């Protein structure tokens, strides 16, 4: 597979409504769109998903743009690729920068699938032609959260995730459970707690949550193991798991019962596939996490989520969950709580060129 040209576009769009977590309030989103072309004019699409500031991981749009332009694209242009699974190996000498790496690696997966004239989800070993849709409530105000949940259930979502933090946990969940006693409900703490909060977290066991995501430190595996022994709710790790080694450590130490696999956080689709396989072999449940991303990244998530182990609805919602108008055509739509995997080659969605142009802040072409 010879790539003859690459285009990087930094795009920005306001969210339809603010997205609040224990760490940050997101009101607009930047990302990097990667378009790579082969000699026959086919285009592979990728999206690098770091935020504009390093509140979730250490990467930002600016660091990722530098990595793509100055380090990663030169490697890709120099080394012809036989199969996308080789890309992460060719980046092994480069430390970290997983979201930058994932942006170009996913574009190569899309281009390769188009060359093979296959939908990407079939190429990665998908077993279902639709994925269950989960949604994240972007407010921690109990009244607003309950109103939002009613709206999302109307739209058919099967699983709801809410953000919690110390001082806004028990009351919020108690109010939600009063209205929705049997809802498939999970929480994400984004590392807002410590082992001093064991009693607070034990109290949440009464709400029969599917899981509690990342209660402790962003790079912790040991203390999560201590906490998991003290609470009934399964711990799900997100930020702590950036590599297969992290996943192996968490499995060995029994730090969690679930892992949220995000293609960007783990450095690409091949790493995500290997993590899926490792977790399933060790009875660790997995689901596909989201990054408040645009349609190209979400399309890659959909392909991944068709694999057998992704039985829990992921943070895979419709384009309209965050955007007035997405950068892809058709947009991603949730019907009866599911998203149909596209039948087109590659990711199965096209770029909405006029929309992409409108939201592009800056772009460069490399060859
Ligand atoms: O993509 C979505 O629908 C929301 C994903 C989501 O909850 C998160 C995205 C990025 C950082 C966090 O706030 C949070 C997470 O930790 O999973
Ligand atoms: Mg999370």
TrEMBL record:
<dbReference type="InterPro" id="IPR013341">
    <property type="entry name" value="Mandelate_racemase_N_dom"/>
</dbReference>
<keyword id="KW-0479">Metal-binding</keyword>
<dbReference type="Pfam" id="PF13378">
    <property type="entry name" value="MR_MLE_C"/>
</dbReference>
<feature type="binding site">
    <location>
        <position position="213"/>
    </location>
    <ligand>
        <name>Mg(2+)</name>
    </ligand>
</feature>
<comment type="pathway">
    <text>Quinol/quinone metabolism; 1,4-dihydroxy-2-naphthoate biosynthesis; 1,4-dihydroxy-2-naphthoate from chorismate: step 4/7.</text>
</comment>
<dbReference type="InterPro" id="IPR029017">
    <property type="entry name" value="Enolase-like_N"/>
</dbReference>
<feature type="active site" description="Proton acceptor">
    <location>
        <position position="262"/>
    </location>
</feature>
<comment type="similarity">
    <text>Belongs to the mandelate racemase/muconate lactonizing enzyme family. MenC type 2 subfamily.</text>
</comment>
<dbReference type="InterPro" id="IPR029065">
    <property type="entry name" value="Enolase_C-like"/>
</dbReference>
<dbReference type="GO" id="GO:0009234">
    <property type="term" value="P:menaquinone biosynthetic process"/>
</dbReference>
<dbReference type="InterPro" id="IPR047585">
    <property type="entry name" value="MenC"/>
</dbReference>
<dbReference type="GO" id="GO:0000287">
    <property type="term" value="F:magnesium ion binding"/>
</dbReference>
<feature type="binding site">
    <location>
        <position position="188"/>
    </location>
    <ligand>
        <name>Mg(2+)</name>
    </ligand>
</feature>
<protein>
    <recommendedName>
        <fullName>o-succinylbenzoate synthase</fullName>
        <ecNumber>4.2.1.113</ecNumber>
    </recommendedName>
</protein>
<keyword id="KW-0460">Magnesium</keyword>
<keyword id="KW-0456">Lyase</keyword>
<feature type="active site" description="Proton donor">
    <location>
        <position position="163"/>
    </location>
</feature>
<feature type="binding site">
    <location>
        <position position="238"/>
    </location>
    <ligand>
        <name>Mg(2+)</name>
    </ligand>
</feature>
<comment type="pathway">
    <text>Quinol/quinone metabolism; menaquinone biosynthesis.</text>
</comment>
<keyword id="KW-0474">Menaquinone biosynthesis</keyword>
<dbReference type="Pfam" id="PF02746">
    <property type="entry name" value="MR_MLE_N"/>
</dbReference>
<dbReference type="GO" id="GO:0016854">
    <property type="term" value="F:racemase and epimerase activity"/>
</dbReference>
<dbReference type="GO" id="GO:0043748">
    <property type="term" value="F:O-succinylbenzoate synthase activity"/>
</dbReference>
<comment type="function">
    <text>Converts 2-succinyl-6-hydroxy-2,4-cyclohexadiene-1-carboxylate (SHCHC) to 2-succinylbenzoate (OSB).</text>
</comment>
<dbReference type="InterPro" id="IPR036849">
    <property type="entry name" value="Enolase-like_C_sf"/>
</dbReference>
<feature type="domain" description="Mandelate racemase/muconate lactonizing enzyme C-terminal">
    <location>
        <begin position="142"/>
        <end position="234"/>
    </location>
</feature>
<dbReference type="InterPro" id="IPR013342">
    <property type="entry name" value="Mandelate_racemase_C"/>
</dbReference>
<dbReference type="InterPro" id="IPR010197">
    <property type="entry name" value="OSBS/NAAAR"/>
</dbReference>
């Amino acid at each position: 597979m010879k790539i003859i040209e690459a285009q990087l576009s930094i795009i920005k769009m306001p969210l339809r409504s603010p997205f609040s977590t224990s760490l940050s309030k997101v009101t607009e989103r930047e990302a990097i769109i990667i378009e790579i072309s082969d000699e026959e004019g086919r285009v592979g699409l990728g999206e690098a998903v770091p935020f504009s500031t390093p509140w979730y991981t250490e990467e930002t749009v600016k660091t990722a743009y530098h990595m793509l332009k100055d380090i990663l694209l030169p490697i890709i242009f120099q080394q012809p690729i036989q199969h996308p699974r080789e890309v992460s190996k060719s980046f092994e000498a480069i430390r970290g920068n997983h979201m930058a790496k994932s942006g170009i690696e996913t574009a190569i997966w899309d281009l390769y699938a188009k060359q093979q004239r296959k939908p990407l989800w079939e190429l990665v070993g998908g077993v279902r032609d639709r994925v269950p849709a989960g949604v994240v409530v972007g407010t921690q105000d109990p009244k607003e959260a309950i109103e939002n949940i009613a709206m999302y259930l109307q739209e058919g979502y099967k699983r709801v995730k809410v953000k919690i933090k110390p001082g806004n946990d028990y009351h919020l969940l108690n109010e939600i459970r009063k209205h929705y006693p049997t809802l498939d409900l999970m929480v994400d703490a984004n590392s807002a707690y410590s082992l001093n909060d064991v009693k607070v977290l034990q109290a949440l066991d009464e709400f029969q949550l599917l899981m509690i995501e990342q209660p402790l430190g962003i790079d912790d595996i040991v203390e999560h193991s201590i906490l998991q022994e003290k609470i009934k709710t399964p711990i799900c790790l997100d930020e702590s798991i950036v590599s297969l080694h992290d996943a192996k450590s968490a499995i060995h130490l029994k730090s969690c019962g679930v892992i949220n696999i995000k293609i960007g956080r783990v450095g690409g689709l091949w790493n995500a596939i290997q993590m899926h396989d490792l977790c399933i072999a060790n009875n660790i449940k997995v689901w596909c996490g989201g990054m408040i991303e645009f349609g190209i990244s979400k399309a890659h998530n959909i392909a991944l989520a068709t694999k057998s182990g992704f039985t829990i609805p992921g943070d895979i919602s419709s384009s309209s969950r965050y955007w007035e108008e997405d950068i892809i055509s058709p947009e991603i739509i949730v019907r009866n709580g599911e998203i149909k995997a596209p039948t087109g080659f590659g990711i199965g969605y096209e770029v909405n060129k006029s929309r992409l142009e409108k939201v592009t802040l800056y772009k460069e072409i490399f060859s």
